[in-house]
Amino acid sequence: MNAPVATLDHAADLLDAHPDFRVLRRLQAVDWLHKGPAQGEMRVGVAVDVETTGLDHEQDRIIELAVQRFRFDALGRVTQLGKARVWREDPGMPLDPRITRLTGLTDEDLAGHAIDEGAAADILASADIIVAHNAAFDRPFVDRRLPATAGRPWACSMAELDWLELGFDGRALGHLVSQCGWFYEGHRAENDILALIYLLAHQAADGGTIMARLMAASARPSWRVNAVDAPFEAKDALKARAYRWDGTLRFWWKTIPEEEVEAERQWLDQNVYIGRGAPALFAQTACERYTR
């Protein structure tokens, strides 16, 4: 016979109180994560996650899209969660067996399914901010599949926060969530967005929420650095400095905060171009970040 939940909770609390144990609790779907009174203006966020046939934004396709709307107050506290909406889509090609192993989705699971474009676009259009945990991956897929949503503001919980400074190590979603004391089954879009919202609602060591930190980071200007015409022999140096390769436009690029622009320009001149050319730099807001 299964033990009563109250008994299990008591046992978990006893273990958690001992320095030799740490208890992880399964994430549960809820309607709110902050029950007290809201402070200041209420805003709408939408958590997004996609599962795809591969990593190429131009060639690969979304096979699962999950979105979940949530409301948060001026202190970044999540006061209301909407219903998670999940759509599967038939990519019109057989899945790579590795994608099936990763996601658990099969060709049979996807056959005949399609994303409800109108419903998905309406939810995304209602957002003051769209949040993904690797927006550089998710956003190009979403913008391409749902072009009506292009130009909306996005934030990346993985890239825009200094997780070490916040008291975490690593930045993978599952690892961060486990350090908050929770676990979930990853690599399914619906589970990933619930985990993301829990993480955003988490209170950091300074008393503020992760969501408040993310909104502050998103509001700061950033710059897109395109290392156009960089010599081939500079590829290892660029990769080591966290540049990403754009296989379509064929150059290395990355996004940096405004205060690092001059230092980055100098590094590129000294280590990549060496007086023969220059990068292209573009100011970005949340509406332009993570687009192709």
Pick out its properties.
6-stranded mixed sheet, globular, 12 strands, 292 residues, 32% helix, single chain, 2 domains, 4-stranded antiparallel sheet, 21% strand, alpha/beta
Outline the structure in words.
The chain has 292 residues and is α/β, with parallel strands linked by helices. Strands 2, 3, 4, 5, 6 and 7 form a six-stranded mixed β-sheet that branches. Helix 6 packs across helix 7 (189-201). The longest helix has 13 residues, at 189-201. The model has no long low-confidence stretch (mean pLDDT 93). The protein is built from ten helices and twelve strands. Helices cover 32% and strands 21% of the residues. It has two domains: 5-219, Ribonuclease H-like superfamily/Ribonuclease H (Nucleotidyltransferase, domain 5), CATH 3.30.420; 222-284. Helix 5 links the parallel strand 6 and strand 7 (154-156). The protein is globular, with a radius of gyration of 21 Å.
Main sheet properties: 6 strands, mixed
Helical stretch count? 10
CATH homologous superfamily heading of the largest domain: Ribonuclease H-like superfamily/Ribonuclease H
How much strand?
A: 15-25%
Total count of strands: 12
CATH architecture of the largest domain: 2-Layer Sandwich
Helix fraction by DSSP (H/I, runs of at least 4): 25-40%
User: Quick check: average pLDDT?
Assistant: 93
CATH fold name of the largest domain = Nucleotidyltransferase, domain 5
Report the CATH C-level class of the largest domain.
Alpha Beta
Our count of domains comes out at 2
Structural shape: globular
Distance between the termini: 55 Å
